[in-house]
Amino acid sequence: MSTFEENASIGFIILDSNWHFIYANDYGASILNRSPEELLGKMAWAEFPAAIRHASYSYFHQARKSGKEISFNEYVKPSNQWIHVSAFPVGENLHIVIRKTEMLANHFAMENDLYQKYTNYIQDLITLTSEDGILLYVSPSVKNLLGFELEDMYGASVLAFCHPEDMDGLKSIFINEKECATNDQGIVTCRFLHKKGWYVWLENNFKWLLDEQGKRTQNLGIWRDISERKIVEDRFIQAQRLGQFGSFERDLDEDSIVWSVEMFRIHGLEPALRIDLCKAIEPIVVDDREKVALAIKQAILVGMSDIEYKIIRQDGDIRHLRSQIERVVLDGGRMAVRGLVHDITIHKRIEQELTQSKAKLEIAQEIAGLGHYEWDTINNMVYVSDELNALFGCKDAVQTLPIEVLHESIHPEDNLRMKMAIKKALHEGTMDLIFRVVVRDEVRILHTLAKTTYDEWGRALCLFGTVQDITVQKQTEELLRKTEKLHVAGQLAAGIAHEIRNPLTALKGFVKLMCHANEESKLRYYNIMQEEFNRIELILGELLILAKPQAVAYMPHDPITILEEVIQLLNTEAIMNNVEIMLIANTILSSVNCERNQIKQVFVNVIKNAIEAMPSGGILTITAHNQANGVNLQFVDQGQGISEDRLPRIGEPFYTTKEKGTGLGMMVSFTIIEEHHGVIRYQSKLGVGTTVSIQLPASVQ
Ligand code: ADP
Ligand code: MG
């Protein structure tokens, strides 16, 4: 035992059956960072609880159990060293011998071995250079990575292998920063020459090795092939450029921000790697700075935020930016915010122009008394302009409402027609409808024109239309029509009187004759008289129809029958003016859905004009034929014709060239044809004649 005592580098400790220290020499105690006196009587595992997790705990138990000596190496935390421990059970007690070990040396040897393996087998390139960048060591992986032999590289400068454009980054390690000892390690990316002539993107994690005075001696570099990452990065940059997307990343611990190239471009600045925080804030317009700060705070707090703000560039250009910011956790647990920034200036401009033109449109509509609506067919909500709101008698503030609300105001008799028209509009793209609304017990007549927009799959998205209140216009038209009717009737009266007087004279004569006639003659007279009465009845009937205000009732009619009736009515007047009316209709015409008396009035007006245009007589040829979707009637006269500059004026109220004309005939006729969804057209040549063609849609059976 004394031998242990004497040898100061051997520790000796005895523990009793309950793990209490019953002996410890100086060295043994010092290894545990205690004096022998401090240890005596203490329970080992109570005194050194951390040791329970160490090898000694299980080895000591094992030795006790087996009764055999056991040896092991262990690192002792209290004295911070590796020791070799042997433990022998002696009776109840456990004797422990501790020696200093060569463990640490072993550890270095192992590390060296591992390092060798690492440098030989891993793909990364490891270099050791002098402070000037001369290569002192290059790992064998250089062959795989760059195709060079080790001998090609030893003694050369790392700069010799670097792409000229990336030289600055690399030079900054060896030349520029040589004196500044603050950055002893860092990352630099550059392209390195491959023996076959191309370049490989490498990322260099470097560390300066320092001597005792803190002076840089050698540079240890680990180079990783990042070509693939570079390609992805390049694509990302390209995508940002194409999409006008910039991005930024701000490490909250740092005063500068990483900006993407496109981010600099958006700001009109020269690209760099980073930008100072204050420089980055500077372009943001003062009013928006707080908003941006809040958005960043929000991103830190809840993970994400969205923001729109404006910047003023140095060239004075104002840009609208939209940014989505998110919180990220970097390697090492540091917090950062990252954002995608989109230049939306153009969108904003378009949006503004759109709002402006919308506003202009609204003013124009207000002036014109025109309302408009936009029916979003997908959400079934209708946007109504203020004008329309007023027309429909809705409450002022309401701007969007379900279409059903509008339907409520529509006149019950027009509801079905409206629904059909909407269905047709969604299907065919347009709507042109006159309908009535009942607002506070007052009926108003509205005219709507609308267009449907479709998406790329042909699905109806929206029906946009204008609405005009035509109540007053309609009332005036109706009034004019009545006036014109009376006028025509008055004019006709002369002809009619003549027409009636003739048969009456004849009748008078026959009545006289009958007094003296025999039975046979009487029968003949009766027949002639009957015919004359019929004629009077017919003419009076026509006159009554024209004079009577009629309820509008659209029904299918044969246009030829109506024409024949009108010709019958006007024939006397024609003959008196030496005009021959010829009706040419070779086929059976489609029937036309019309208000009979109105169409009749149109024919009367047109034929009368033709007769009046031929004061010295001529032929009025009326041809009728079927055409796509309807019938076409042409009234060709041989009158004086109409000069080209006057042609557009026909149909204007009170436009007449006649001494006793009203200038209402054609106006009324145009309106009637329009209401029948027909077309009326004038063609004329001075001195040759005029052709009036009327097209009417066929009634759908
Ligand atoms: P009015 O017959 O009372 O003048 P209208 O409206 O019927 O009124 O016609 C307007 C004008 O159009 C006529 O005054 C005439 O100058 C011209 N016009 C209409 N039809 C013809 C025609 N067939 N030939 C020549 N001029 C015509
Ligand atoms: Mg006329």
Automatic annotation (TrEMBL):
The keyword Acetylation does not apply. Residues 1-48, 111-174 form the PAS domain. It catalyses: ATP + protein L-histidine = ADP + protein N-phospho-L-histidine. Residues 495-700 form the Histidine kinase domain. It comes from the Bacteria. Its EC number is 2.7.13.3. The keyword Nucleotide-binding applies. Residues 186-238, 305-356, 431-482 form the PAC domain. PROSITE patterns: HIS_KIN, PAC, PAS. CDD domains: HisKA, PAS. It is an enzyme of class 2 (transferase). This is histidine kinase. The lineage of its organism: Bacteria, Bacillati, Bacillota, Bacilli, Bacillales.
